[in-house]
Amino acid sequence: MRCAAPRGTPKASPRPPLNFPGIRSCLLSPSFIRVTFMKQISGWSLLPLYMVILLDVAGIILVMPVLTPLLLQADSGIVPLGTSPILRDFLYGLSLALFPLFMFFSTPVLGDLSDRYGRKKILLVCLVISALSYAIAALGVIGRSLTVLLLSRCVAGLAAGTQPIATAAIIDASSTPKARSANLAWVVFSCSIGLILGPAVAGITANPDLVSWFGYDTPFWFATVVCLLNALMLVFSLKEKTSLIQKDRVLSLTKGFSLFMAAFSERKFRLLSLLYFCFVISWGFYYQTINWIFMEEFHYGVGRLGFFVAYIGVIFALSTGLVVRWVQQLVPRETTIFAVFVLCMSFANFGAAITHNEVAQWLWAILNATGDVICYTMGLAIFSSLVDQDSQGWIMGVAGAIGAMTWAIAGLVIGPLGYLHLTLPLWISGVLCFTGFVLMLIYQAQTRTD
């Protein structure tokens, strides 16, 4: 049974999930490549929006292979030499947590601002702020100032609403449901490319062995220039649909917190929100720990870390485009698919925790990353099925709030846990995934009796 959003709950701007069967089948069909590419891309009208999405994802992932050695290696210069190991580990986790923490509060507000003042204006503001955040990060690295580097993570989180706003603008520009599905397929494609290019560019441009003047600051300068060029392209190519501007849109600075609380205050969403919380935070533990493990156990530098993170991006792209569609053809029930693959993630995390072989860690990453994509897709689909069409934006806002908060929590605790034992976050991740599996079995039993 579908229900509307609770009364009095602020609705998010309509931002449908990026992963659903129509998008994936469209992305893989020859007609999509032929019709959509020729009609949409050849006009260049939506290309800047796809670039915004690609850069948003790439920028988020770009910092992962850089921050790990920058904050955890004693000779990096960004953390004073006399810093205790536990404080250094905490600062590493804090640097990872600040971005999603500020994103948690800014993204819903930016979405409402884009409804009230137009997508183009807010996108341009976000791109300029993003460029500023990358420039601040580069200056922090050059000046060896930890405070400035952490400040850049806060500023970056404030501008993290570009992806949903650009997606909303793409939906606005879609004249028919078929065009919308085709355009959203390119959104998925742009995200996948960003997941690969971001860490690959970081791994290359931060490696002084390739070019003498490359360093930890170079990826941030590169991202700064690309953001400004994208903003310039947006100015001349994107036409705003003024008829869609809602000047009476009410703004709320606490909207992210309200959405997060709504996930657990309503009985209908409580159990699903709890198991989704367990799943998302488990992936946060794994993703933020595995780079640390590769650096400590296998002596990876920023170049090899960048290519490992890009490798995970390739798995994401293949899973989104191929595996999810294949699995749905075999197993029609989304709850069953979620249960199976969150259990697989549990095994993968336990395997990664006990493995001291480099090749085996790369193999465990396949199962873990594939499971993450499938569980994320199924989780959004299950959330979507619980509400009516008018409440889709609200429920996606709820899921997004859970995701941002869990990543912030994971970042804050990952350092102290890693200090106790480097693989402890992976053991906890395995337990959380198994907990999500058990909760999904309970959820399935409840839905059968309701």
Polypeptide structure, described:
Helix 5 packs antiparallel against helix 16 (392-420), helix 11 (255-265) packs across helix 12 and helix 12 (267-298) runs antiparallel to helix 17 (424-449). The chain has one domain: Growth Hormone, Chain: A (Up-down Bundle), CATH 1.20.1250.20. The protein has helices spanning 21-28, 30-41, 47-62, 64-72, 85-117, 119-142, 146-158, 162-172, 177-205, 218-237, 255-265, 267-298, 302-330, 334-354, 358-385, 392-420, 424-449. The protein is mainly α and 450 residues long. It contains 17 helices and no strands. Helices cover 78% and strands 0% of the residues.
SSE blueprint:
Elements: H1 21-28, H2 30-41, H3 47-62, H4 64-72, H5 85-117, H6 119-142, H7 146-158, H8 162-172, H9 177-205, H10 218-237, H11 255-265, H12 267-298, H13 302-330, H14 334-354, H15 358-385, H16 392-420, H17 424-449
Helix pairs in contact: 1-9, 1-13, 3-8, 3-9, 3-10, 4-5, 4-12, 4-13, 5-6, 5-7, 5-16, 6-7, 6-8, 6-10, 9-10, 9-13, 11-12, 11-16, 12-15, 12-16, 12-17, 13-15, 14-15, 14-17
